[in-house]
Amino acid sequence: MPAEATTAASALAEARRLLDRPLLELVFEAAGVHRQHHDPARIQRSQLVSIKTGGCAEDCGYCSQSAHSQTGLERQPMMEVGAVLAAARAAKESGADRFCMGAAWREVSEGEDFERVLEMVRGVKALGLEACVTLGMLEPDQAQRLQEAGLDFYNHNLDTGRSFYDRVVTTREYDDRLRTIEAVREAGVRVCTGGILGLGEDRGARAELLAELAGLDPPPESVPINTLVGVEGTPLGDTPPLDWAEVVRTVAATRILLPHSTVRLSAGRGEMSEQTQALCFLAGANSIFSGEELLTTPNAEPGRDEALLAKLGLHGVGA
Q1: 132 catalytic, yes or no?
Q2: 169 and 199 in contact (C-beta within 8 Å)?
Q3: Is 45 a catalytic residue?
């Protein structure tokens, strides 16, 4: 077996071994790894805004913004730069130090809208915030222009394991996602890539996802762990919720496999109990998204985060 294949098989076996461990043993190990590399009392707070909503040509089975789904979500034009920067200022005032902008595109195309995104990135950076965008697939020259505008992170999730991927998305290949990540990395922009749990996948597919993430060279600096928020009218809208213990397991295994990365507890957190979130923080999650929405799905209610962090003795990065 070629060395590369041997390494990949070994990474997959290790990811599966971690996910199959007794939960509390796994969390205990992950908590130790987390404390070696991060301040366990600090939680980065980000805010995510949809700068162009609806009408995406992709058929991602979880997404309310896909043109293939019947969710009643109306396609909206790109937001004006001033409105986005006003949202960024409000996010900073509420305690966020990272601002993320998402556009419902299959891929970036040249033109006025992309120029507007570049202006948004420059404006967010001028406010003293980290800037992240998610715009679909990128060409290397587009990634370079984003880097020149000051972009800190580009988000492009792998979603799930390779073997399960075509049951979730058919309009884009798994390797298309990896090529975009490579273009981002080559441009000198930090990589934000993770997945979505609860799509109907089994633990084996989650192990594949984690092994793929851990095998990126260098590893991603940022790893969002999302949990499916079922949206009526999407193919996966009636998928049964994933058990909370599987979410905690995945966070813990991610922390052990990617000790230096920021692990972001992302979509689906609004449906999690305080106890589940607390275990995720113990297991190594050290970033959350604030605000009432993540693109088009609900997030934690206003004030809930502040109360939970205070109860746990945690504080924001800038606090």
Answers
A1: yes
A2: no
A3: no
pLDDT < 50 regions, the chain: none
**Nearest CA among 67, 58, 124, 69 for reference residue 97:** 124
Which of 258, 265, 315 minimizes the C-alpha distance to 289? 265
**Residues 113-131: tens digit of each pLDDT:** 999 999 999 999 999 999 9
pTM of the model: 0.91
Catalytic position from the list 56, 172, 206, 269:
56
Residue 53 is predicted with a pLDDT of 79
Q: Establish whether 192 is a catalytic residue.
A: yes
**Would residue 280 show up in a list of annotated catalytic residues for this protein?**
no
Residue 14 domain flag: no
The token pair that represents 192 in the structure block:
């934000």
User: How many other C-beta atoms are found inside a 10 Å radius of the C-beta of residue 312?
Assistant: 15
- Asked if omega into 240 is within 30° of 0 (cis), the reply is no
Is residue 15 domain-resident? no
Q: Which CATH number goes with the domain that contains 104?
A: 3.20.20.70
The beta-strand segments (E) located in 7-129 are 42-52, 98-103
